[in-house]
């Protein structure tokens, strides 16, 4: 890719390097968008995200909902004629958005942090406390109350976490991989 | 035959019936599942969405444990399978990253064990014909659609299992149990995965599309191999009655093999499948 603007080039190269994907090969066939189940719920089609990256449009890409609404279903990558795994690109963009402080879908990122904190503490995720903490922090207290209670009654939401023995090892992995 | 077994976090809570039915069905089919000692969460979507290195390192810890146990690793949850399989793929093919992961997780990768989904394990280790021979109560009259979801067959270069666009392994097992599987175009679509809690409307949209499609081909139930798919399909639909229950494929194996515990699993579902099974004389 050729750029006049050095910042645009820098952004494109960073995404390419981080995602390890041949982003420059996309020729807009839109096969990814045709199979993308998230398109109706976000602001850009996957092929648009790739094009914006090719054009070095950092703010528009990192501030988009699409990179967060992507559920990593991998349909786009499985069908791409140019071997671009767009789910990997979306992951790289989410990491970059967090680093740049441009998280459009704050609750989704909050969920990820709450989930990983639970894993860090116990070695496994304790769904019950993780959901309660997420609900308190997101302010979305009352949705799913009925189904939550039903799950609890059926014994599907254990009150206490299972804590693994090698918790020190897990904390070590978290520390060594911290940004 | 023996396999290491990695249930994953969901199978201890919201997908209890998957864990119970997987263990009992495998036992009845002559597969001994040995739970991986002190296994750790795979990191799921939350790790790979926020920290690539962590998303490879966490599941690599399970690869290390499976290596120690010395048996192939079978994983029922599609999402866990995807993360551990991807980690194994990186360890196998990316020398530079392997060195980094080995140092973070403190082990030496030898590539001797295979990571497989429980579905793949049963198809390859037991085989559809052997499963058919063990059927005591054929699931006659039950017409279902199989829902593979995203991660059992994608990305194909990593999973290397079944056909990416039209997988048939679950269909073949369900047919061997005496049920009828209907072909539909939504086999490998997405249920919305972990967006259930954060972006409920998105998931409702995805799930309702799937439910409508299943009704269109006149399926009586949906069969899946993933705890996230199962709970989204039951929890996030427009109305929760008794229509179109969602089974784990291991529950249907248990039911067709005449295993007495099957009833207990169905009581744990949000959409009660008993009326449907009773109407077909498949349950008391």
TrEMBL record, chain A:
Signal sequence range: none
GO function term, MF aspect, one: metal ion binding
Domain of life (superkingdom): Bacteria
InterPro entries: 4Fe4S_Fe_S_CS (IPR017900), HdrC_iron-sulfur_subunit (IPR051460), Helical_ferredxn (IPR009051)
Keywords: 4Fe-4S, Iron, Iron-sulfur, Metal-binding, Oxidoreductase
Pfam families in the record: Fer4_17 (PF13534)
Gene3D superfamilies per the UniProt record, alphabetical: Alpha-helical ferredoxin
Annotated GO CC locations: plasma membrane
UniProt protein name: Heterodisulfide reductase subunit C
TrEMBL record, chain B:
InterPro entries given in the database record: Cys_rich_dom, HdrB/HdrD_reductase
Annotated Cysteine-rich domain residues: 4-83, 144-233
Keyword field contains Iron: no
Domain of life: Bacteria
One example GO MF annotation: oxidoreductase activity
Keywords, sorted A to Z: Oxidoreductase
Signal peptide: none
Pfam family, one: CCG
Keyword Oxidoreductase: yes
Cited Gene3D superfamilies: 1.20.1050.140
Name of the protein: Heterodisulfide reductase subunit B
Source organism per UniProt: Desulfallas thermosapovorans DSM 6562
């Amino acid at each position: 890719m050729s750029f006049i603007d050095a910042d645009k080039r820098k952004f494109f190269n960073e995404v390419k390097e981080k995602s390890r994907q041949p982003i420059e090969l996309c020729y807009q066939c839109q096969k990814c968008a045709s199979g993308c189940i998230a398109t109706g719920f976000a602001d850009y089609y996957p092929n648009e995200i790739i094009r914006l990256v090719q054009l070095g449009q950092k703010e528009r890409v990192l501030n988009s909902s699409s990179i967060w609404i992507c559920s990593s279903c991998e349909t786009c990558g499985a069908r791409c004629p140019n071997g671009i795994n767009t789910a990997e690109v979306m992951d790289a963009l989410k990491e970059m958005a967090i680093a740049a402080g441009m998280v459009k879908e704050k609750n989704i990122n909050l969920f990820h942090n709450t989930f990983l904190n639970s894993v860090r503490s116990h070695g496994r995720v304790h769904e019950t406390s993780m959901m309660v903490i997420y609900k308190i922090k997101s302010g979305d207290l009352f949705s799913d109350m009925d189904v939550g209670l039903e799950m609890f009654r059926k014994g599907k939401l254990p009150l206490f976490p299972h804590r693994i023995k090698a918790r020190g090892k897990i904390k070590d992995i978290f520390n060594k991989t911290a940004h | 035959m023996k396999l290491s077994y990695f249930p994953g976090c969901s199978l201890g809570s919201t997908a209890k019936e998957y864990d119970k039915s997987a263990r009992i069905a495998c036992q009845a089919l002559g597969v001994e599942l040995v739970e991986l000692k002190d296994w750790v969460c795979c990191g799921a979507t939350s790790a790979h969405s926020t920290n690539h290195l962590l998303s490879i390192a966490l599941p690599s810890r399970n690869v290390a444990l499976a290596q120690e146990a010395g048996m192939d690793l079978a994983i029922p949850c599609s999402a866990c399978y995807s993360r551990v399989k991807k980690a194994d793929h990186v360890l196998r093919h990316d020398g530079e990253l392997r060195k980094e992961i080995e140092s973070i997780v403190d082990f030496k990768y030898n590539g001797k064990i295979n990571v497989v989904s429980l579905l793949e394990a049963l198809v390859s280790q037991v085989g559809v014909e052997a499963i058919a021979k063990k059927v005591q109560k054929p699931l006659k009259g039950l017409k279902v659609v199989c829902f593979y979801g995203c991660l059992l067959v994608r990305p194909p270069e990593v999973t290397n299992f079944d056909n990416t666009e039209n997988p048939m392994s679950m269909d073949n097992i369900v047919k061997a149990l005496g049920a009828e599987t209907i072909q539909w175009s939504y086999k490998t679509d997405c249920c919305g995965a972990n967006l259930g809690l954060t972006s409920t409307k998105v998931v409702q949209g995805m799930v309702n599309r799937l439910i409508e499609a299943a009704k269109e081909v006149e399926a009586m139930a949906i069969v899946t191999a993933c705890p996230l798919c199962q709970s989204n399909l039951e929890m996030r639909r427009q109305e929760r009655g008794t229509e179109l229950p969602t089974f784990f494929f291991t529950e249907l194996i248990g039911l067709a093999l005449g295993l007495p515990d099957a009833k207990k699993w169905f009581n744990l579902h949000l959409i009660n499948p008993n009326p449907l099974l009773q109407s077909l004389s498949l349950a008391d």
